[in-house]
Structure to design on (639 residues):
């Protein structure tokens, strides 16, 4: 990116307020002086005390949008720097990514001009450098497999075949499965030699494939000899995983022959530990083009993950085309200095949008289906709906006082109102369109982080609560979610949600799957209440969390510090009592995008922790080995 004519640098220091203060330096690198301007920056460390600034005047804040003006009459000359401080923060800054993520100026004529920003520097304490997070690792067996299989008893050969090819007479389905893995490999490793071919090759090795009804659909077994390889599989998924294992083995042996080999004798007998092996992606806070999503799905398939949980809506944008309500993806995605949705989370002077058309969705769903990756859509309700409420004003109770409650992210009055009749008409239409697009048996309806106190000053909500004998925000949430559950049941879908769905009375646990994100203990409690559970604890599986304590390590930290070794070692089953273990369906990585402003940042935070979760999802506890994992994970494809 080209440099802007202005640069904002910032430091945080622990003194000057209960949560310290920012010092900002705005450098004017343009050709002339400016005056009567304001500066906007976006920062997840928010200002809550408007008076606690020096040499600047607070103008406005909305979630992480902040606007300040210089003192009256101030002129910022060419080549000069304006210094101002901002205290009154809602929490301390603890990492270099906790400051301004973007900035721009609004000039006196209304034009918005870009400002470059730098990472937040620390003053008054030692600014620790990023730690080493991944050891070199150590292999007991020289095989490049990730996730590691359930059982392996194989001997390495000295060399390796150029490729593996199906035995003559292979079925059309087998040929297509091999073709699909060649194509997957080609997309993931554009410059590497393909491990499989359809035609025989004199330097290759023949591959016999056969279905074995005694194996589970996702299970497979491999038998190696010097002359051939045999693959038995339970179903199409098992065949795909067996072929992926062969492709990984051969790719590793070719890329790092000092370290990895291809088997010449022995067996691999493999099946997944959990049926739900998921990865979530938040496409609301940042938009990811379709090509990024298909690549992520390719990576999931390579790691034998089988669920892509697509978080399509949130306060910051509604990304799914709904033909009944086009405003959702016009007004409801556009963040712009001129509103109504303001820049957040790294947005600058230019308006930003982005959404998925229904044709895009079909592309993603088909891409997933072909690789045994199920796409589970999430429409996050009733909380996290600023974008929806801005796009469709008639969803609000017009008599509710503004700013009557705030979400933990700082959005005011951001929950769909259970007492507004249009809420239900709207959601019925959304679900009608959604179910034509997504074959998954689940629809994820969020249910997270409704602020306590929501709706309590809405006259419509108060009337409903009185009529129905409901008390409190979470009683009302449960009343609402029970109706959502009925809408989904009517459409033949099961309800999935975050763990707070169980609050205030919850919904019928039968056919409901909840994701335990707030802590590992929550998962056990949900299972006790009868819900199916997927473990996604922020303390281990939120890939936006920082990987080291040090200031210079980037990431969010509200759920703690999550080094890759911890993600790898975490055992979802943990303290689950035996009688509840069958309610634990699996585990899932969550990629929340507030901080994800670039591909480089994505790769730095998501890897190697995503492969670590893939191994935890697939490999039995007795076969997990951090040193082996570390030695292999360098081969993993990235976005
Ligand atoms: C969540 O992290 N709000 C599910």
């Amino acid at each position: 990116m080209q440099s802007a004519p202005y640069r904002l640098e910032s430091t945080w220091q622990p003194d000057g307020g209960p949560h310290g203060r920012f010092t900002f330096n705005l450098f004017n690198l343009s050709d002339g002086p400016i005056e009567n301007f304001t500066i906007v920056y976006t920062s997840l460390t928010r200002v809550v005390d408007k008076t606690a600034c020096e040499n600047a005047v607070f103008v406005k804040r909305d979630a992480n949008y902040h606007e300040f003006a210089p003192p009256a009459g101030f002129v910022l000359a060419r080549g000069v720097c304006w210094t101002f401080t901002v205290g009154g923060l809602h929490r301390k800054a603890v990492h270099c990514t906790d400051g301004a993520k973007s900035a721009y100026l609004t000039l006196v004529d209304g034009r918005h001009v870009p400002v470059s920003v730098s990472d937040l520097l620390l003053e008054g304490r030692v600014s620790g450098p990023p730690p080493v997070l991944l050891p070199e690792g150590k292999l007991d067996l020289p095989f490049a497999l990730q996730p590691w299989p359930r059982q392996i008893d194989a001997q390495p050969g000295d060399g390796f075949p150029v490729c593996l090819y199906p035995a003559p007479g292979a079925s059309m389905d087998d040929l297509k499965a091999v073709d699909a893995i060649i194509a997957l490999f080609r997309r993931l490793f554009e410059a590497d030699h393909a491990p499989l071919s359809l035609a025989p090759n004199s330097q290759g090795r023949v591959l016999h494939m056969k279905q074995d009804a005694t194996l589970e659909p996702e299970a497979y077994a491999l038998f190696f000899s010097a002359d051939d390889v045999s693959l038995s599989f339970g179903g199409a998924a098992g065949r795909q995983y067996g072929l992926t294992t062969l492709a990984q083995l051969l790719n590793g042996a070719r890329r790092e022959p000092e370290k990895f080999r291809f088997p010449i004798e022995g067996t691999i007998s493999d099946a997944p530990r959990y049926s739900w092996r998921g990865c979530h992606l938040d496409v609301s806070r940042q938009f990811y083009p379709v090509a990024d999503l298909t690549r992520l799905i390719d990576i999931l398939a390579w790691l034998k993950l089988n669920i892509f949980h697509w978080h399509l809506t949130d306060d910051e944008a509604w990304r799914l085309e709904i033909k009944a309500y086009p405003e959702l993806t016009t007004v409801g995605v556009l963040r712009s200095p001129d509103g109504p949705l303001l820049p957040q989370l790294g947005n600058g002077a230019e308006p930003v949008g982005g959404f998925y058309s229904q044709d895009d969705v079909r592309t993603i769903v088909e891409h997933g289906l072909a690789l045994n990756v199920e796409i589970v859509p999430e429409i996050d309700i009733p909380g996290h709906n600023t974008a929806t409420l801005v796009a469709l004003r008639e969803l609000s109770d017009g008599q509710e006082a503004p700013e009557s409650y705030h979400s933990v992210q700082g959005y005011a009055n951001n929950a769909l109102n259970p007492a507004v009749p249009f809420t239900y008409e709207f959601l019925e239409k959304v679900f009608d369109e959604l179910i034509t697009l997504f074959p998954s048996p689940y629809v994820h309806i969020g249910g997270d982080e409704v602020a306590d106190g929501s709706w309590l000053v809405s006259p419509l909500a108060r009337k409903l609560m009185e009529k129905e004998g409901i008390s409190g925000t979470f009683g009302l949430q449960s009343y609402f979610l029970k109706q959502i559950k009925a809408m989904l049941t009517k459409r033949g879908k099961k309800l999935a949600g975050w763990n707070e769905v169980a609050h205030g009375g919850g919904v019928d646990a039968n056919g409901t799957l909840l994701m335990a994100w707030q802590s590992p203990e929550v998962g056990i409690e949900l299972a006790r209440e009868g819900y199916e559970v997927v473990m996604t604890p922020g303390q281990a599986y939120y890939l936006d969390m920082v990987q080291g304590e040090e200031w210079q390590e980037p990431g969010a930290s509200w759920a703690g510090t999550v080094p890759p070794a911890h993600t790898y070692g975490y055992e979802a089953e943990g303290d689950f009592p035996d009688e509840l273990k069958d309610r634990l369906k699996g585990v899932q990585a969550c990629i929340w995008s507030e901080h994800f402003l670039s591909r480089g940042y994505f790769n730095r935070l998501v890897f190697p922790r995503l492969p670590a979760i893939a191994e935890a999802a697939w490999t039995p506890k007795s076969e997990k080995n951090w040193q082996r994992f570390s030695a292999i994970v360098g081969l993993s494809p990235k976005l």
User: Anything to note?
Assistant: Residues 448-449, 498, 517 surround acetamide (CB under 6 Å). The chain has three domains: 6-122, 151-270, 276-635. The first helix runs from residue 172 to 188. The domain at 151-270 is CATH 3.30.379.10 (Chitobiase; domain 2).
